[in-house]
Amino acid sequence: MPAPWDNTSYSTMYKYMKCIKETSFMYAVSSAGLVHEFARACAQGIMDKCTCDESKHLENTKTWLWGGCGDNIRFGLKFTRKFLRRSRRLEKDIRAQVDDHNSGAGIKVSFLQLSPENWY
């Protein structure tokens, strides 16, 4: 049995996955989860070359009760896009374009949900 990171096993799995709405949902949810995890890992200092979220969106400091390191959502978005681009197949058939679109939908939703300016 090939190793899970082996490209041949990924290609075989990809070939037999059906293009159905559940698969689309899976791509969107997985992408959103990656954004969150990369942003959180960055804030915890697990990842190199990133820092805490230092945005100035939370202007009302009286309501701000916790002053720790915020999740760097923008880093999570950028890193997820790069990560998914590297793992995609080289050819750009219609299936790859649909998968890219669904991943992009998950990234967009995670940005809208995780951005502090959308919390209030």
Automatic annotation (TrEMBL):
A Pfam family hit: wnt
Keywords recorded for this protein, A-Z: Developmental protein, Disulfide bond, Extracellular matrix, Secreted, Wnt signaling pathway
The keyword Secreted is annotated on this UniProt entry: yes
Origin: domain of life: Eukaryota
InterPro entries on file: Wnt
GO cellular component labels: extracellular space
Record GO terms (molecular function): cytokine activity; frizzled binding
Location relative to the cell: Secreted, Extracellular space, Extracellular matrix
Gene Ontology terms describing biological process: canonical Wnt signaling pathway; cell fate commitment; neuron differentiation
Function noted in UniProt: Ligand for members of the frizzled family of seven transmembrane receptors.
Family assignment from sequence similarity: Belongs to the Wnt family.
Classification via PANTHER family: PROTEIN WNT-4, WNT RELATED
Protein name: Protein Wnt
Natural source organism: Elysia marginata
